[in-house]
Inverse folding.
């Protein structure tokens, strides 16, 4: 039986279903990313059909594109309205993401034939991949990243795809998962690699200055503008502009950025003359932008412009097979920097690293390994050398170093040994953090997951000092 994943809010017509079933296709429907992920876990699809509405709907389009780009191993065919394929962005989507496309009304026989071809191609590729397995490596690969887990291999394929195209990319993922490295890798492997790569952190620039930093200003256009200054966009001309933490961009700058992405014209503050600038934009976020849109903190039209291709960097706990590789890599790094030799992890220390939840992801792992190496007098790092760094999670508890908490906790941590009340509080906080992590900080889903209202969830987050953006740390 050939398995077909149909992602859509709609159903295929009886005629198409009959033609597919006659060719031994079993059809599974998925309405959203979560559905698709759980169906894929069960069936491992090789072929997918993105079934758009017959009447164009930009929100649905963005959802489907995101879904398609989340499964780079699947050969995708899309069914969409004829007027859609004249749009530039849709043409790019077709060229870069799809195996083939159909326009409505669907011809059952043609659809069945194309799906059959896609299935044949996917089988050949899968077979080739099986025969040349990736070697395990603790040195960074050509993208500057370490990790051989399935989720990382899928990430590399997405990076390659992004590097081969010139569309805007939105990289989302918890803090410390390598979003900045991913952006750099896309630039370095793209046709713009000889051009500049300019990275700015939207959260680090005061909102009142961001507009002029991005677009530049004329002399005298505001009180402190003593000279004419060109902005970051201009300095990235011919290359890539990386906008880190785009979710923190003020609404006013969002509007100007959107205009720029639409016409690629930069008009400095205080100027009436615009200049065309050829720049590719890659943005990253560790907050849920869809939630920010609902809360009216982020413009949906800008989101659709930026999220042409979406790439997710996975949490470290979703790829625990990479932990040892990363830990050994960082150990070699610190040993080389500090002139230490023969430093190794004991089997117990490695087990502790594998079982920890890593809320601060790779950044936290790096810091824990560095601290352990520097505090170890012997050549063998033991579990007691591994300390949670005070940095990544803003915790209500004292920030002294504590031994690694295991996931799931093997034994209650020491502070749970106090009163029943404090144990309850701690358990509430841990569950809250896990649920936020599981749901990528999406408030609605986390609240549902925990069986509480959104208001209660906000109250609990305030009580325990867990911020949404920090929830993934
Ligand atoms: N796969 C990886 N291989 C090697 N090092 C990595 C990997 N992922 C992340 N790192 C390292 O972890 C640290 C954090 O990475 P980076 O700054 O790219 O994360 P980020 O997701 O952009 O974080 P933030 O959201 O906080 O800005 C860096 O030191 C980076 O070199």
């Amino acid at each position: 039986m050939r398995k077909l994943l149909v992602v859509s809010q709609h159903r295929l017509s009886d005629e198409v279903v009959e033609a597919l079933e006659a060719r031994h296709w079993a059809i599974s429907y998925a309405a959203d990313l979560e559905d698709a992920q759980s169906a894929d876990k069960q069936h491992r699809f090789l072929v997918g059909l993105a079934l758009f509405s017959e009447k164009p709907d930009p929100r649905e389009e963005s959802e489907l594109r995101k879904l398609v780009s989340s499964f780079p191993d699947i050969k995708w065919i899309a069914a969409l309205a004829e007027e859609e394929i004249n749009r530039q962005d849709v043409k790019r989507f077709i060229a870069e993401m799809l195996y083939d496309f159909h326009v409505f009304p669907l011809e059952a026989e043609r659809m069945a034939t194309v799906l059959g071809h896609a299935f044949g191609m996917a089988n050949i590729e899968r077979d080739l991949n099986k025969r040349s397995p990736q070697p395990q490596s603790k040195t960074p690969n050509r993208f500057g990243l370490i990790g051989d887990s399935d989720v990382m291999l899928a990430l590399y394929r997405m990076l390659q795809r992004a590097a081969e195209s010139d569309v805007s990319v939105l990289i989302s993922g918890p803090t410390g998962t390598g979003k900045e490295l991913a952006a750099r890798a896309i630039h370095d492997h793209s046709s713009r690699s000889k051009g500049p790569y300019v990275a700015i952190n939207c959260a680090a620039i005061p909102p009142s200055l961001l507009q002029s930093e991005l677009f530049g200003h004329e002399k005298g256009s505001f009180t402190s503008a003593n000279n004419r200054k060109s902005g970051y966009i201009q300095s990235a001309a011919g290359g890539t502009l990386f906008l880190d933490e785009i979710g923190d961009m003020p609404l006013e700058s969002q509007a100007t950025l959107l205009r720029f992405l639409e016409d690629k014209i930069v008009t400095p503050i205080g100027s009436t003359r615009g200049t065309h600038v050829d720049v590719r934009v890659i943005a990253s976020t560790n907050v849920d932008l869809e939630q920010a849109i609902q809360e009216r903190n982020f413009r949906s039209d800008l989101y659709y412009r930026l999220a042409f291709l979406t790439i997710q960097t996975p949490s470290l706990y979703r790829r625990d097979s990479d932990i040892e590789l990363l830990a050994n890599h960082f150990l070699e790094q610190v040993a080389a920097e500090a002139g230490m030799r023969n430093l190794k992890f004991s089997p117990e220390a490695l087990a502790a690293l594998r079982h920890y939840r890593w809320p601060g992801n790779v950044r936290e792992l790096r810091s824990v390994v560095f601290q352990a190496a520097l505090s170890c007098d012997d050549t063998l790092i033991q579990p007691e050398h591994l300390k949670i760094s005070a940095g990544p999670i803003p915790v209500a508890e004292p920030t002294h170093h504590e031994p690694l908490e295991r996931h799931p906790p093997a034994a209650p941590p020491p502070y749970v040994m106090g009163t029943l009340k404090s144990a309850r509080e701690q358990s509430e906080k841990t569950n809250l953090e896990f649920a936020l992590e599981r749901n990528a900080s999406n408030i609605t889903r986390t609240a549902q997951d925990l069986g509480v209202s959104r208001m209660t969830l906000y109250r609990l987050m305030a009580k325990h000092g867990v911020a949404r953006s920090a929830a993934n740390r």
Confidence is low (pLDDT under 50) at residues 389-418. The two ends are 43 Å apart (CA to CA). Residues 140, 145-147, 173, 175-181, 244, 286, 313, 362-363, 366 surround adenosine-5'-triphosphate (CB under 6 Å). Residues 108-131 form the longest helix (24 residues).
